[in-house]
Every structure is written in C-alpha cells, then in structure tokens.
Amino acid sequence: MSWLKTNNKKRIVILGGGMSGVGAAMLATQRGHDVFLSDGGVLKDAFAKALQDQHIPHETGGHDMEQILNADVVVKSPGIPDNATIVQKILEANIPVISEIEFASRFTDEVEIAITGSNGKTTVTSLVGHILQIADFDVSVGGNIGQSYAAQVAEAPAEYRVLEVSSFQLDGIKTFKPKIAVLLNITPDHLDRYDYKFENYVASKLRIAMNQDENDFLIYNADDPAIIEALKIHKPKSKLVPFSMQKQLDFGAYIQNHNININLDTNLFTMPIQNLSIKGQHNTANAMAAATTAKLLQIRKETIRQSLASFQGVEHRLEQVLKINKVQYINDSKATNVNATYYALDSMEKPTVWIVGGVDKGNDYSELYALVNKNVKAIVCLGTDNSKIVEAFGSCVDNMVETSSMEDAVRVAYNLQVLEITFYYHLPAPVLIYLKIMKIVEDNLKMQ
C-alpha cells in the first residue's frame, strides 16, 4: 500500500496551478496532507478561487525553492518538461517527482481504463465512457480531458475510471497500473519535448503498460508499425488484444464484409460499419478499440451496438458548426498534429479552404502533400511565423494568404470562398477552421 493511503501526514508540493495541479492539491488536502502549490505564472480566476476556498497555501509569479525543497513528493504539471531547471533541482535533492495521474491512482483501488495514442484518444475515451454509461456502470471519465483524475477521486468514488492519458502524464508514472490499457497509434508528435527523437516518444507511450501483469489487458493497433516494433522491445506482461483495419485476426477485432468483428471468446460480436454514428476509417478504428474494451468488461453486445450508434462524437473534432451561403464551416481544432490533420483532409469530399496555424513541433508535413494537392484549393495561414507552412505547401495550392488573427483568417477564407463559389458554379465547399467561428462569420456578413 502506498504511504499516501496511510494516515501518515506528508508534505506534498504541487508544481503548476492548472486543472491537474489544483485537482492534486484538493485531493492531497482532503486526505490530510500538508500541501503547497507553486506556479511561476498567473492562475486563472477559477483555480485561484478554488485554492482560496480550500485554504490551500500557494504562490504565483515565481518559485520559493525553500518551500519546495522540503517536500516528501512533488506532483508536476504535465506542461512542465523534465529538463526544466526547477525540476532538475528537485531531482538533485532526491525528492520524487510524479504526475497527477500517478498521484491520484495512489488513492484508489477502482478499475482504471487508460487510453493513449497520438490521435483519437479523446474520441475513444469519450466513447468508452458513453458505452459504460449506457450499460449503467458506475463510471467517471476524465484525465487529460474534462475534469482531472485527482479532482474526480477527491469528488466521489466510482467503480470504473476511464482516463485519457498523454505521453507527458505517462512520463511521470511510477506505479500506475490500468486494468485495461488502450494504445491507438503512435505518429511523430511533441518531438520538441523528446529531443526530436521519435523512439523517445514511442517509449513514453509504451509506459502505459509498464506496470501491467498477466491479469491486465493491452488493446493495441496491429496496423501501426511503430507499435508492433515497440512491443518487441518493451515486451509488456499484459495480455495483448489487437485490432486491425487491414487483416483478419483469430483473436481481437477486425473488419470483414463491411462489419466490425470482435472475437475474444466463442461469442463473436459483429456490427455493420454503416451503423456507426461517427464516420471515416479512423473512427471505425476508434470504434473497434472502444468496443473491444467493452467486450473485455463483458458488456452485452446489444448495449455496445446501441452505444456505437448513438455516440455524438467529440466537440471541436470535425464538428460541423454552421452553413452560410452553401459554405460548410467545420471546426477541427482538436487536430493538433500532422496525423490528425491527415484524417481531416482525407475526409473532405469537396474543395476546401484550409485555415492552419499554431506552433510547429518538429513535424514532417510531406505526408500531407498529396491530400493538399487533391482536396485543398486555398490555404490561409494563421500565426506569427508561417515560414514552414509556406515552404511546405506553397507549391501545392494557387492561393495562400498569411493573416495575424483568427478574425482576419476567417474573413479572408470567407472572401476566397465567395469568389470560388461563383467560379465553381455555386458548388458548396467545406472550410476547415479552428476555434469558435460562428460569431466571426456572422459579423463579417453584416459588414457585406
């Protein structure tokens, strides 16, 4: 039993006052530990109020090392890299540094279902939660989405905990041991955090199974070469349960005759792909992973089918926001890496104006070239430095415009689209956009 579960009062220092940090502080306080939270920036009003209401000592705008270095354990925000100076000083003082996921797991013996991957983990986490709720399980859903795990453990017990976990959170685990782990895919992402070495990022993802044993399950994508190679290297002890879009399996989930088939025992589960509420090949794979999880939990087949058919999807993931003048506006702001963008562009069936921007994370855009050539008719760049986007896609489209704000980007995209609608004989055309656009578009129309 972890010493955190005993009655021994410990000094817990929380680094970072975001959602995970405040959740950890509230849980530690609830369980009677001595807590101090330190954030080098400014807290959001809601988080500052939560700390004040609970009378939790905290500081902002800097770090008092004397307060920090007398900790028994430090819980670090996933946004703080391991090579940060403050983290290195704590480690040099031989103080354990763990993630909030690890911290919360030490206070519960409930069934943990952990889901990770470069893409799709929010959808699968939400879908697994949806299935368990339809099946009337006592379940909470959180982790890297919604409420933090620590805040959920502090708030109320639940028989099942469905958790989205990121590589940053997995980097800080020591004993975290999910009953069911799901590894969806691994493609280059966050390489700036991993010394620009893909193998380091892969190793981080495989940590989800590092403490599992033969009584646990690892559901994995059998079509992903990075995962297949990593399993040979890391050799998890858990029972391996594959899913595949490309080949039939004697054991696991696969596609046959346009049906999802899951064969884990003599009781075969089948469901037509056309009955899934979420569309696209990537979502078929997501549905297979979620349904396989449900089968391992012995949920009735009809309940699984009902859940897969009724799931409404994830907000901001290929979300059709509105249609104005035959132009469909799609919010895909959850697509924060190349692979997720590939799935989005691949799903476009009509000419697309693509608004793209953000911080480059060392990604290779070459896999997008064919799709951009095929589906994208104009690119609107958003950000302070668009040089890599311009360099990568400048020769793929006829129209590329740089903008400095979301408002300008949407207005430029709208005007490009209006001109192109006339040229293309009023053919409707989707527009991939990021963030909330409805008000921007409506305001722009009022100025016409």
From TrEMBL:
It comes from the Bacteria. GO terms for cellular component: cytoplasm. It is an enzyme of class 6 (ligase). GO terms for biological process: cell division; cell wall organization; peptidoglycan biosynthetic process; regulation of cell shape. InterPro entries: Mur-like_cat_sf, Mur_ligase_C, Mur_ligase_C_dom_sf, Mur_ligase_cen, MurD. The keyword Protein biosynthesis does not apply. Residues 115-293 form the Mur ligase central domain. One of its GO terms (molecular function) is UDP-N-acetylmuramoylalanine-D-glutamate ligase activity. It is found in: Cytoplasm. Its EC number is 6.3.2.9. The chain crosses the membrane at residues 12-29. The keyword Nucleotide-binding applies. ATP binds at residues 117-123. Pathway: Cell wall biogenesis; peptidoglycan biosynthesis. Keywords: ATP-binding, Cell cycle, Cell division, Cell shape, Cell wall biogenesis/degradation, Cytoplasm, Ligase, Membrane, Nucleotide-binding, Peptidoglycan synthesis, Transmembrane, Transmembrane helix. Its main location: cytoplasm. It catalyses: UDP-N-acetyl-alpha-D-muramoyl-L-alanine + D-glutamate + ATP = UDP-N-acetyl-alpha-D-muramoyl-L-alanyl-D-glutamate + ADP + phosphate + H(+). Residues 316-415 form the Mur ligase C-terminal domain. It holds the Pfam family Mur_ligase_M. PANTHER family: UDP-N-ACETYLMURAMOYLALANINE--D-GLUTAMATE LIGASE (PTHR43692:SF1). NCBIfam families: murD. Cell wall formation. Catalyzes the addition of glutamate to the nucleotide precursor UDP-N-acetylmuramoyl-L-alanine (UMA). Belongs to the MurCDEF family. This is UDP-N-acetylmuramoylalanine--D-glutamate ligase. It comes from Nonlabens ulvanivorans (Persicivirga ulvanivorans). The gene is murD.
